[in-house]
Design goal:
This protein has 403 residues and is of the alpha+beta class. It has helices spanning 4-14, 20-61, 79-85, 122-125, 149-155, 199-202, 210-217, 237-244, 257-260, 262-300, 302-310, 315-350, 369-390, 394-402; strands spanning 65-69, 75-76, 91-106, 109-118, 132-135, 144-148, 166-171, 184-195, 205-209, 223-224, 226-231, 252-256. The chain is built from 14 helices and 12 strands.
Length: 403
């Protein structure tokens, strides 16, 4: 059976005061709790959708894991070691790659980019051929390359343009004799395709076959920058390290997708925290209305409190009535706010009604139970603090009435 302090708090919550101004203050306080809760949940869901949408581009381009040398840019990997990789549990596909900064020149236009040389197994790890929007993927026979739209636009490169070649240049790594003063290696190539992912990546990479990069960079046939892996979602980074480290002669490290884009993930996490704290502050400001409503209720119910004291109620019980009343306002208002916020988020997800300005793309949202728990926990913590502050010293005042 519920204690009488809770019954009285429920009665005060659902019943109306004889004074209209008190009813309006209480109604406005409750309304602000609902709005603040719904707003925080909608904003977190919208940011989650934007974060998920933004990461989808990098996830379509980056492998699940990379095996990199702990020291130096390149390491030797035998064909036998490569073939053994896919025999381990959780590894679906593996492919070597070479990545190095190069200088591009085309028809008197220049650009610095990153050469990413791959073999024919690369697309089993990263389905890059699906991102080709003009032309074709590498033929792996000759000096053909694939660029991003950003690089092609800066250089003015066309697809299958045999009138002018795209030149890739890097400094020579081996010492030269006095008779050979040219300090650079250069190879001429034909652009066969253009990919499009996002503005940053479209201006960064040029793809070629492994042999072209190994000749350009003066590398051995089995020398690579890293190995890219496609793995089962159930496999962990620690399990991969335990299984793969003994397989290599040189020290290696396993780099996850998040670690490959550490700056991007850090920026998104900082933005997420900033948005959370800003709207938590908005919620705290909204809860000042609850403080005002409780103070007005205490003043309005003074006669009833004296009656309760005269029939045996303790000052602590009187204090608990108004404390519970504040908790009821926060919890019931919060639940209604979460219901409204959830309906808005789910409606936007299934039946979009808000679109990115200037496009036909619906504004991305992500419904997460985690956000529900975060919003409710934030509301209850701030609500407890606000209610405790509004009802502070009430039991001492009741003792003065009894005295």
């Amino acid at each position: 059976m519920a204690p009488y302090s809770l019954k009285i708090a429920l009665r005060y919550f659902f019943s109306k005061s004889s004074q209209t101004v008190i009813n309006r203050i209480n109604g406005f306080a409750f309304f602000m709790v609902v709005v603040a809760t719904a707003s925080l949940f909608v904003v977190l869901s919208a940011f989650g959708g934007l974060k998920d949408f933004g990461l989808s581009f990098s996830e379509s381009f980056d492998p699940d894991y990379e095996i990199q040398p702990q020291r130096g840019k390149f390491f030797h990997v035998s064909d036998n070691t490569l073939s053994k990789l896919t025999t381990f549990r959780g590894i679906i596909a593996a492919a070597p790659q070479i990545e190095e900064k190069v200088f591009l020149s085309y028809n008197e236009k220049n650009q610095v980019a990153y050469l990413k040389a791959v073999d024919q197994n690369y697309t089993t790890v990263v389905p890059l051929e699906d991102l080709i929007t003009l032309g074709d993927w590498l033929s792996f026979d000759g000096a053909d390359v694939v660029l991003g739209f950003g690089l092609a636009g800066n250089l003015g490169v066309g697809v299958y343009d045999y009138t002018t070649f795209l030149n890739l240049t890097v400094p020579k790594k081996k010492k030269q004799s006095l008779l050979n003063q040219n300090p650079f290696n250069q190879v001429s190539s034909i652009v066969v395709g253009l990919y499009q992912i996002n503005e940053e990546l479209d201006k960064k990479f040029v793809f070629s076959r492994l042999e072209l990069a190994q000749n350009l960079l003066e590398l051995d046939p089995q020398q690579y920058s890293s190995l890219v892996l496609k793995t089962d979602p159930s496999i962990t980074q620690e399990e991969l390290s335990e299984a793969l480290v003994p397989l290599f002669d040189t020290p290696i490290k396993i780099v996850s997708r998040a670690e490959q884009n550490a700056a991007l993930y850090k920026m998104l996490n900082v933005e997420h925290l900033a948005i959370y704290f800003i709207f938590s502050l908005v919620m705290l400001i909204a809860l000042f209305n609850v403080v005002g409503a409780l103070i007005m209720m205490i003043l309005d119910k003074q006669k009833q409190m004296k009656i309760l004291l005269s029939i045996g109620a303790t000052p602590q019980k009187i204090h608990s009535i108004f404390f519970l009343l504040g908790i009821l306002i926060c919890s019931i208002g919060g639940l209604i706010g979460l219901v409204i916020g959830s309906v808005l988020v789910l409606a936007q997800y299934h039946f979009p009604f808000i679109y990115v300005p200037g496009t036909s793309l619906s504004y991305p949202v992500l419904f997460q139970v985690e956000n529900l728990l975060i919003v409710m926990a934030t509301l209850m913590v701030l609500g407890l603090l606000s209610t405790a502050w509004a009802t502070r010293g009430l039991d001492r005042k009741m003792m003065d009435y009894t005295g």
